[in-house]
Task: inverse folding
């Protein structure tokens, strides 16, 4: 969906367009969070904040599985400005605790 297609968007195209917008927003959010993390050099890599997509890749869980585990209170996470985020250090501890 580019700007030229936005004017000719049909109702049937809305689900795909929304999916593309969500993916773009997730990429922007990831870039912003990584830039924020890089601007604070005293933080360890393990203190990095991850989005749901990044946490899913890091833990090797599907995003939906990770969301379900969050809803059940099985995975440590925080909400910041309405977004679900994960501290890498907490995910590492959670993984170690789960595999022991």
Result:
């Amino acid at each position: 969906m580019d700007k030229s297609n936005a004017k000719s968007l049909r109702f049937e195209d809305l689900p795909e367009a929304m999916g593309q917008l969500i993916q773009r927003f997730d990429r922007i959010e990831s870039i912003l969070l990584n830039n924020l993390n890089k601007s604070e050099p005293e933080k360890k890599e393990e203190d990095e904040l991850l989005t749901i997509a990044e946490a899913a890749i890091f833990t090797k869980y599907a995003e939906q599985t990770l969301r379900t585990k969050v809803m059940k209170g099985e995975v440590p996470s925080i909400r910041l400005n309405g977004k679900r985020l994960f501290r890498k250090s907490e995910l590492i501890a959670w993984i170690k605790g789960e595999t022991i």
About this structure: The first strand starts at residue 49 and ends at 50.
